[in-house]
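Thread title: Can someone regenerate the structure for this chain?

I was given the following input by a collaborator and told the matching structure tokens would be attached. They weren't. Posting the sequence so someone can regenerate them.
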Amino acid sequence: MAAPVDLGGQLVSHTASIGIAIADSVSSMTDSDILAAADGAMYVAKARGRNKAVLLDEEMRAALDDRSRMELMLREALEKDELRLHFQPEVDLRTGRLLSVEALVRWQHPDRGLMAAADFITVAEETGLVLTIGRWVFAEACRQLSAWMKEYPELPLVVRVNMSPAEFAATDLVEFVENCLLVNHIPGDRLCIEITEYAVIDEPEKTAAILRGFREIGVEVAIDDFGTGFASMTELKHLPVDLLKLDMSFVTGITTDAYDRAIVESIIRLGDVLNLGVTAEGIEQSDVVEELLTLGCHRGQGYLISRPVGPEELVPLLSAGRVPLSLLRPAELTLGLASTTF
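Best answer:
Regenerated them for you:
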């Protein structure tokens, strides 16, 4: 497989990921079962770095069985309305003012309880269910935003919704987004779509065209986990984006790791030069807030401010429109400053 092949005068080489499954004479596996098992072993080979062969063992088989059950239950979850949206606030680190909330999908699993997206999104991506789930999340986020706009008309709240690279394969993506805005009577600037750097890296030209479509209907675009994909740096100047979100792996280390601090500082400066907003993710300590403000980053989200919560748990924050400064800053820096109860 690795031997180069001459295609019209150009040498092309490939690697192969091979999955192997064996059934003995007493096995109850059908031919379809064996093929599915080999297919599962192939995905293990890919996950282990590709260009290798993997023989399915009992541990892998148990994991594949668990994955198959999760896939079946995830399909049922869509039918049984078991998915939920939680929202994580983003605030102005200088004032505590609420700027936006990020919509995050959860699964109210009948046996495992409330599951975060990280626990099932890989299965959704491998089975194609991520497209259906992504559309549900977007439509539900728009419905919730519409309700909030009516209940809190003076609050200029923006809702941010993540979109996976797989969703960008749909030819009607921009039309779908526009229709959700129209149906829910939402101005485009009250919505922000978050994409990963990997969506940019995979198909930069196609992604740029879709993002231009979003801009035409007034929707903002943020690049999530910025700084982890690297290659998008060269594409950034060609992309119609509005915001960069600093990955929490860098943010959490800015007070203790010179490398992390340098990365964060460079991205903040890049945002300033390109006239892009910069939001820090994963803020868990008040000294990180102080360092971010020193570096010029004024927007942030993280457990220090609030964990992702259901819509009903957001009511106090939505009513106040801000979090108290004492939540963000050390006590000695907030003496004499008025705070808002939350």
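The radius of gyration is 23 Å.
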